[in-house]
From TrEMBL:
Signal peptide: none annotated. Residues 120-219 form the P-type ATPase A domain. It is a multi-pass membrane protein. Pfam families: E1-E2_ATPase, Hydrolase. This is Cation-translocating P-type ATPase. It comes from Rhodoglobus aureus. It is found in: Cell membrane. The lineage of its organism: Bacteria, Bacillati, Actinomycetota, Actinomycetes, Micrococcales. Keywords: ATP-binding, Cell membrane, Membrane, Metal-binding, Nucleotide-binding, Translocase, Transmembrane, Transmembrane helix.
Length: 645
């Protein structure tokens, strides 16, 4: 019984039964001379294929909606009444096939969502009372230790607390290359272990995982309507009754019922109704596969119109991780290692972002700093004054030397200015009232930053604007490397908002890329707010108009390019649908197009529209993974070359 029930619920069952009855109706009269039996089979075929159509049309009418099903129902019933049994059977049979194809193809365009759901693991291995226990993923408790073995799916979001391994994170970030995971790294549910063995502390389980949030967002996005789709829905609400009125008027004026019924069938806006949603579902699905979450059809449509992209600098164009690039020794009695040692002693108790870079550089050169300074005195806007190991250490800018009345030799000024000109932050180190050296600290420009700017231009963006709170000198240095079109420096968060608003006032559609904290006002004001590296961030996934799950800049031009392709696809589908209906109506009025032929062409147009939308599911361009050796990366400061504190 269950097999029969499954077979009856299959989308192709009704078209198959109806088709067999039509074949029987065509074969029986010539062989047995039983025309009446053939008519009965034709009516039976129309009833089998048309029952669901009539029910659907009646339900829609009860809800005050005049839809396609109602038009086909009236045409089929009318054809049976006037003895056009073949026409009734053909129309309902073709409509049933069209509906089955439409359902199958829409399911295909939603394949990205189905794949995301499929990667969600069902079981997890956790450590309980010192033993490995296999449980369902829903039973994992926050904070529990989960074991991830080679080849297994990660069942939770969490932090690696032991072991090493590589994970395939394509389901989350869209990146095909496995990512190495070490202690302290973040992992996501649904990713697959390709090597190694990890112990993971669960920080997100069940519906609180990144994968669950992505699935929820893609579901909502694929159902969200674009402005064009809303317009087409309103158009269809007027168009369908208009076709019914036209058919009635033509039937009354010509006294030709068959012509009137044919107009009803031919005028069905099936391809028109499906033209936009199928493109949106396919476009958003393709984006999800590539690690790009687009909030909905409206934002997809707006993204296609973007003319200006405004980007924050630190953490976007740059890596956001400063490192020491230069150590200039200015005292003949002091070595490079000693300059780093004095600087590291001073920074050991500092909370400033640059302190980590100096401590890391000292560690890389074998300098170990133990204990803390006897006293630490931050000097706002200038640097820091420290007493350590019996010595008075200053580290900061020229203004700090001036405050402590330390002689500012030309060599010091020249070294600091040279580093600043290169876009690096100069940190002058003085010990016991004597300048010993200048350290240059810089952030790294992302290897793909220049390529992103070029790709944005290729995607149709007219201008890429950099917005930064850093100095103009530093901003210009980054601009020269990345090739941005316009630079705005020394900005406060409200200044960024004003610039975005000014760009919009000039008629631009603006996308803002930022970290969502100090850039929040500008992100909210922009036509499209983009969050980069949003994997694991619930806020970014839920609030950003576009969320780039990976930390790859090249995803941004990919997203804009895909949005433009999707909108172009929608326009193509609308044109196909309208031209088909117009030509069919003309053919009916001029003669030569029957109800069955019209329905066949109509369903063919639906299929063409669907196949056209399916092209969006193909990946037209896969960005190559950019690997740049550390020594070849371009260091540019993202912190500022003037007052560092």
């Amino acid at each position: 019984m269950s097999a029969i029930r499954i077979w009856m619920n299959n989308r192709w069952t009704i078209p198959a039964i109806s088709g067999v009855l039509i074949i029987a109706a065509l074969v029986i009269p010539p062989l047995f001379g039983a025309e009446a039996v053939g008519n009965i089979f034709m009516v039976a075929a129309a009833v089998v294929a048309g029952t669901r159509i009539v029910i659907s049309g009646a339900r829609a009418l009860w809800a005050h909606i005049i839809g396609i099903d109602l038009l086909v129902s009236i045409a089929a019933i009318g054809a049976v009444i006037i003895g056009q049994y073949w026409e009734a059977a053909a129309v309902t049979f073709l409509f049933a096939i069209g509906h089955a194809l439409e359902t199958a193809t829409l399911n295909k365009t939603r394949s990205a969502l189905a794949e995301l759901i499929a990667v969600a693991p069902d079981v997890a291995i956790v450590m309980r009372d010192g033993e490995q226990v296999e449980i369902s993923t829903g039973a994992v408790i926050m904070g529990e230790t989960v074991l991830v073995k080679n080849g297994a799916k990660v069942p939770v979001d969490g932090e690696v607390i032991s072991g090493t391994g590589s994970l395939d994170e394509a389901s989350i970030t869209g990146e095909s290359m496995p990512t190495e995971k070490l202690i302290g790294d973040q992992v996501f549910a649904g990713t697959v272990a390709r090597s190694g063995f990890l112990q993971v502390r669960a920080t997100g389980v069940g519906a609180d995982t990144t994968l669950a949030r992505i699935i929820h967002r893609v579901e909502d996005a694929q159902d969200a309507k674009a402005k064009t789709q809303v317009f087409m829905d309103r158009f269809s609400a007027w168009y369908t009754p208009a076709i019914m009125v036209l058919a009635l008027v033509v039937g009354v004026l010509t006294a030709d019922v068959v012509l009137a019924l044919t107009l009803l069938v031919i005028g069905c806006p099936g391809a028109l109704v499906i033209s936009i949603p199928v493109s949106i579902v396919a476009g958003i699905g393709r984006a999800a596969k590539d690690g790009i979450l687009i909030k909905g059809g409206e934002f997809l449509e707006t993204s296609a119109k973007i003319t200006v992209v405004a980007v924050d600098k630190t953490g976007t164009l740059t890596m956001g991780r400063p490192r020491v690039t230069d150590v200039i020794v200015l005292d003949e009695s002091t070595t490079r290692e000693q300059v780093l040692t004095w600087a590291a002693r001073a920074e050991a108790g500092s909370e400033h972002p640059l302190s980590r870079a100096i401590l890391d550089a000292a560690a890389d050169e074998g300098v170990r700093i133990t204990g803390l300074s006897e006293s630490t005195e931050p000097v706002p806007g200038k640097g820091i004054a420290v007493t350590a190991a019996g010595h008075h250490i200053l580290i900061g800018n020229l203004a700090l030397l001036e405050q402590y009345k330390i002689a500012d030799a030309d060599a010091t000024t020249n070294a600091a200015n040279e580093l600043a000109t290169l876009g690096r932050t100069p940190m002058i180190v003085a010990v016991d009232n004597r300048v010993v050296g200048v350290i240059g600290v810089a952030d790294e420009v992302r290897p793909e930053a220049a390529q992103m700017v070029a790709d944005l231009h290729a995607a149709g963006v007219t201008k890429v604007v950099m917005l930064t709170g850093d100095t103009l000198l530093v901003a210009n240095a980054i601009g020269a490397v990345t090739g941005v079109d316009e630079i705005h420096a020394s900005l406060l968060p409200e200044d960024k908002l004003d610039i975005v608003a000014a760009l919009q006032a000039e008629g631009h559609v603006v996308a803002m890329v930022g970290d969502g904290v100090n850039d929040a006002p500008a992100l909210a004001t922009a036509n499209i707010g983009v969050a980069m590296g949003a994997a694991g961030s619930a806020v970014a996934v839920e609030t950003a108009d576009i969320a780039l799950m990976g930390d790859r800049l090249l995803k941004l031009p990919e997203a804009i390019s895909l949005a433009r392709r999707t909108v172009n696809n929608m326009r193509q589908n609308i044109a196909i649908a309208l031209i088909t209906v117009a030509l069919l109506l003309l053919g009916v009025l001029l003669g030569g197009v029957t109800m069955a032929i019209g329905m066949l062409v109509h369903e063919a147009s639906v299929l063409i529209v669907i196949v056209n939308a399916m092209r969006l599911m193909r990946r037209t361009r896969q960005s190559a993974t950019i690997t740049v050796a550390p020594e070849t990366r371009t260091p540019i400061t993202a912190i500022g070359s003037t007052p560092r504190r």
